[in-house]
Every structure is written in C-alpha cells, then in structure tokens.
Amino acid sequence: MEQEKTQGELLKEKLFLKRENAGEVLSAQELAQADSFCEPYKAFLNHAKTEREAVAYTIQLLEQQGYEAFDPAKKYQAGDKVYQNNRGKALIFATIGKKPLSEGVKLLISHIDSPRLDLKPNPLYEELELGLLKTHYYGGIKKYQWAAIPLALHGVVCRRDGQKVEVCIGEEEGDPVFCVTDLLPHLGDEQMKRPLKDGIKGEELNVLIGSRPFKDDKASEKVKLNMLVLLHEKYGIVEGDFLTAELNLVPAGCARDLGLDRSMIGSYGHDDRVCAYTSYAAAVEAVAPEMTVVTVFADKEETGSNGNTGLDSDFVRYFIEDLAAPHGIAGRTVLSHSKCLSADVNCAVDPTFQDANEKRNAAYLNRGVVVTKYTGGGGKVSTNDASAEYVGEVCRALDKAGVLWQTGELGKVDFGGGGTVAKFVSYMNVDTVDVGVPVLSMHAPFEVVSKTDVYMTYRAFKAFIEA
Questions:
Q1: Superfamily of 116-251 according to CATH
Q2: Which CATH class is domain 15-114+268-466?
Q3: Which positions of the chain have pLDDT values less than 70?
Q4: pLDDT for position 19
C-alpha cells in the first residue's frame, strides 16, 4: 500500500525546481518518436558539413515543401512560403502568417558554420618529397584534436575561366582522405612539454595529401606537380586558382549512433546544425501560422558574425523591410514587435571534467532543451541578457506544450564563456533569448548530443511558433 506523502514532500514537489531525465519521464512511444526524428537529422549532418552545403541541401528540402524564391516586389499573403539565398552561405525562409506584419514575426535564428581548417590562399607545397597543404583554422578549436584523424576536403573553386567548381573529396566510399600528422610519443618529449593548447601549433596544422612524384627526370617539386596534375585532371584547377577558392577540411565520415542504447549521436558539426535542423523541422510544419515565421541560417558565427553573410550585417533587416514594404509597413515596426529564439547550443556537463561548470546552473544531457538567459564572459561581457518578462513568456510556452527544458550557463563565472548571435538580433529591437541543445565535446571534431534533447528542441521551437 502506497504511503501518503508528508507535508514536506508535497511542498518540495510544489516549490523545488524539477530536474528530470527524459529517459525516466518519457514514455516508450515518446522515446521512439525522438529516435525517429533524429534519422533525417543525421542525414542533414552528412549532407551539410559546410555552410554552403547546408544552404544548398536545405533549399532542396524547402522546394520539396513548396517554398519559392523570394520576390521583394511581391505582396505576400497568409500561407505563402518563400526563401532567400544569401550568396550561397546564409539562408532565410518564411511562412506568411494570418496576422498583419505590423504585429511582428516569430524569428528562429541559428548558424550553420562550424569550426574547421581552411586552406590558405597559397596552400600547396612539397617538403621531404611529400605533398602538403597549409591551413588557417576557423573558429575556436583545440588544435591538437585535429591531428591524426581522417579529414575530407569540401568547398568551391572559382577558376580563372569564370567557372565555379564544387569540390568534395573524402566522403564517398573509396575516396581518399587526408590528415594532419603528429609526432610519435617515442620522440615527443619536447613536444609534450608544451602547454596543451600548443601541443599542435597553428602553423603545424599542415595537411598531408600525397607522396608520389610526377615521373620526369628534369622537373623539380615532382610531388607537388603530381598533386596539381591530379587536381587539374579532375577539376581543371591550376595553382593560381587556390587564391579564388574557399576550401575547407572537415572530419571525414558520417554521423553515428553513440552508446549501447543508441541514445546519442556522435558527429562533426552539431554546433550549430542541430539547432538549424530542428528549427527547419518546426518551421516547415507551420502551414498556417498565426504570426509569420521567419527562419534564418546564418554564417560566420564562429568567427564573430562578421561579413555580409553573418548576423552582424543587415541581411535579415533588409529581408524584413522588403517583406513589409509592399504592405506599406516599415521594417522597424515589424522588428520592434517581433520575438526571437536565438537557436544555439550550450555545453553539457562532462562527467570527466565537472569542475568547469557550476553544476546548479549548468545543462545536462537528457534533461531537455536549454534556455540560456545570458551568455558572454565574466561580467556578462558581449551578451544578450534576455528580460525576465520574455524568458517567462518562453518558459510558459514550453510548460504548456509539455516540453522538457532546463537552464544553463557556458561554464563557471570568470572561467571562460562565449557568445551567440542573440546580441545582434537584439540590436534590431527584437526580444531574444538563447534556446538550444546541450552538447558534449563542443567544437571538437566529434561532438555528442542526446536524441531526446534534439527532439525536445524541435518541440520547443514548435511551441514558440504556436504560442
């Protein structure tokens, strides 16, 4: 016979903050739904390893859903679905709502760039009869993590004849891969005396791409020549074309289920494509929304959101102005009445490195989507600190929809920190708060997320749209 709960137990249930594990509170059917939702997400990861690929792949999906290229001269009506491609590296898509634009829009904004190795403008060289590529790392990485792992080459080359060539080597079965080499431990005493951050230095991130020389007794740099011959045969590239190329080295291989229970996904690029995909999935299901839903995939977040495809530019503002102008509404009016979820990840507490977090205010795997009121560094520097009113509004919507959610900070105070695109959205006088997935090994070549957290993030975005 079940005992009656004491007054203290009842008060604790009523007053204490609940921290629930999805595996304990979700039904078998809900867990199966989470697992099923993550299958197309894994396909997205595999097809979208760079921002260019994410834009191209998403446009394919959008067009299958009936979205059309945006025409700023057209006056769109409720139910219309449009997208705008910004230079192949950022994307906006919208479903027009029933309410007038003067009442604002619902914005879901994520980023689709991830840390990687970029080729320098003059990358190819030969040393000790080996062919190598010089790189400059992109975004915040632990450089030593990028040595001795298989890498794939992705990107575009704008040749001197004006043709743009897409490059992807290392992803198909049978493709060669590339790597940054490392020193064997037998000879690594001096290297291992370096600080961990300098275990591999930036100028040591040189990528091995070949070793066989071109067969010509008189030519010099025969291995380099042979690499250029192979590239020219496949892509029509000459060495000068590297100057007009965007070529990236990313971890080779597919997203994989992780764990004996298959409860997690291990992959490159969860930050922030996990929020991009979940926002896409929620947005395309909004067939007849009350308010217009505008979803943004931004570039350059990992390097400060600069440039004309990053959020520290006006491309989102211009889209809103162009969308509103045929209705005789000012863009500033739309934005000032709009609400946004800055869809970005947060760090999950790592059981091996627990001291990095203040655990009462940290996010955990399997406890749902993370609502992050503020980011930034010590003293909340360079942050968007969302208002109590707006955080309350968002959390009530999640509770009403039965979404499992938690809160989190990006590490202990004065221990580090980081930022998102939220501050750039709030510059436009838009209420904004960060909402996203907790991640283990963030910014590593192989990041980890929980399938239930991914699913709850999708449900959170749906709840925001429908609130």
A1: Aminopeptidase i, Domain 2 (2.30.250.10)
A2: alpha beta
A3: 1-2
A4: 86
